[in-house]
Amino acid sequence: MPARLSEEQQQEVAREGNRPIATVDPGTQKVYNLVSAEVFERVKALLGDAFDIRETYAAQDAALAKIWSDPELDAYADYDRHKLRP
Fold first, then answer.
1. CA 63 – CA 59 distance, rounded (Å)
2. Does residue 22 contact residue 31 with C-beta atoms inside 8 Å?
3. Which sign does the torsion angle of CA 32, 35, 36, 37 carry?
4. Within 13 A of 26's CA, how many CA atoms are on the CB side?
5. Quick check: 23 and 33 in contact, CB under 8 A?
6. DSSP state of 64
7. Per residue in 14-28, is it b (16+ CB within 10 Å) or e — as a string?
8. What is the pLDDT of residues 64-74, one digit of tens each?
């Protein structure tokens, strides 16, 4: 059985509509975002099954390879050498 909303949460839901509502567990101070089941299902459909971010590293490397090898950007790798000295 799902947990029931407190009166305070019910008022927040009515006021905020479909926007997430930050809710704090007073025991742990952990913050949870309360969303309607409809919003949750839409987000879940967008994300699909959980994935491991490491699976995207090769695609990230390929996408940024041209930028990382651009000699015009080498100055950013040695920023301290280009700082103005007093």
1. 6
2. yes
3. negative
4. 0
5. yes
6. H
7. eeeeeeebeeeeeee
8. 887 778 887 77
- Identify which of 33, 30, 36, 32 has the alpha carbon closest to the alpha carbon of residue 14: 36
Written as six digits, the tokens of 66 are 């041209």
Cα-to-chain-centroid distance, residue 51: 14
Q: Which candidate, 28, 25, 29, places its Cα nearest to that of 6?
A: 25
Decide: 13 and 21 in contact? Cβ < 8 Å. Answer: yes
Q: How confident is the model at residue 32 (pLDDT cuts 50, 70, 90)?
A: very high
Q: 5, exposed or middle or buried, with CB in 10 Å at 0-12, 13-18, 19+?
A: middle
Instruction: Name residue, tokens 């409809």.
Output: 38
Q: Which two tokens stand for residue 3?
A: 């947990």
